[in-house]
Amino acid sequence: MPPSTHSTAMWHDSTLGLWAHGYAWLPHHMRAASDGIVQTRLLGRPAIALRGPEAVDFFYDEKHVVRTAALPGADLDTLFGQGAVHTLDSDVYRVREALFLRLLKDEAGVAALGAPVGWRWREALADRHEEIVLFDEAARVLARGVCDWAGLVLSEDAISELARDCTAMVDGFATPGPRHFRARRARRRQEDAMASLLAEVRAAPEPEANDSALEAVAWHRDANSEFLELHTAAVELLNIIRPTVAVAWFATFAAHALHRWPHHRELLRADTEGHYARSFANEVRRFYPFAPFLVGLAAHDQTWRGHDITKDSLVLLDLYGQNHDGTLWAHPYRFDPHRFSALAGFAPNAVLADLVPHGGGDPARDQRYPGEDVTVATLAALATELARTEYSVPDQDLSIPLSRMPTLPRSGFRLRPN
Hints:
The structure is a single chain. This protein has one domain (8-417): CATH 1.10.630.10. Helix content is 48%, strand content 9%. It has helices at 15-21, 25-32, 53-59, 73-80, 90-104, 107-125, 134-150, 156-171, 178-202, 213-218, 230-245, 247-260, 263-269, 275-287, 341-346, 372-388, and strands spanning 38-42, 45-50, 65-66, 132-133, 293-298, 302-304, 307-309, 314-318, 391-392, 414-417. α6 packs parallel to α16 (372-388) and α12 (247-260) crosses α14 (275-287). The longest helix has 25 residues, at 178-202. The protein starts with 14 loop residues before the first helix and ends with a strand.
């Protein structure tokens, strides 16, 4: 890659390379760069890609990088929604984020979500012996579990549609073509459904205490002390539900890990305190591909380790590469939950600074995904249930294509309960 003193016109556009190579694109360029910093163009715009703990701090410092206009409108129409908390900065962001922190960082609330996911899984597989696609089944179980927790009363048909739509939103994120259009339709359908539920809540008097996520979002007052506009409230309710359903990706990867390294099944079965299950969940999030990188905009002209960054250029934070960086992780391509055992056992809610499956930083201060505790709790519950479930795995294609984002085992992981 050219040094920062060269004109940005000399940088070639890497958009096609990104679409062609997926998760492998940025780590490949990072390895080729002498100083581990990549300067290129994406969609015609100058971009710089960073990695490592110091880069995480830089990326999440609003003095350096902002997120307000970083996400293209097409991405907001699929994954996050227009007006979502992910697009906000400064005090406006912090007031909105407080809603998510209250709902998603409360230890009792997180535990209350993990429990229904576990028994919903057992209920879904009870007396079933036909072959199922684990990814699809996990998405339905997670949708039912998060609706139980959030206070949404939906029919089984509505739950199935919610699961399909939430996975479509994630699957079509930042992707051209049919997947993108399916994601847009899915988001519109679920935003309308959530807006109707929220309108019903607001038709009644405001309660003294908002005991459910549905009520908390319905009655949340934003930085202007006004209730959220109904569409924005629907977007934010989906931003609680959709990421929980998206744990289906990690649940499928957990099944993949248990199939490749079956000795973990006994370790999970013997784990009465849940410490190993959390370690296993964190290692699944580190080892398997989910988000390749995050994108922000440079707040002003500045430099990073001798490289010029012009105002409004793209700043990429490498996630997949950092999670497999040999300077941060011993034997990074070895699946080893024990690397998290001490932290999982003694500080289950600690921010693991080097682990960045969704992003980095401190959720109370930065824009790190506040639902990580929920992700770990639900994934730990599902991994434990998988370890305890007797099933066979038919012959199938379990390869994981890194060129596809987001990726999965090609078969979705088919299994047959015994």
